[in-house]
Amino acid sequence: MFKENEFRAQIVKAGKTNKEVAAFLGINEATLYRKIKAKGNFTREEINKLIGFLCIDNPEAIFFAHELT
Questions:
Q1: pTM (2 d.p.)
Q2: How many secondary structure helices (H) and strands (E) does the chain include?
């Protein structure tokens, strides 16, 4: 399960904007927004790029978190 709030916090922590993240991935901001709102519909390649670009220490906690019921 994708954790949207933690992903957005990581963008801020890295000092980046949504526009910068989208440009880095080679997509427009609207596409980035849709990927975020679709609960992290990022490709493996995009996730790997984001880990380095946003200096994500624990990608599992953002992109692959377990849903508790």
A1: 0.87
A2: 5, 0
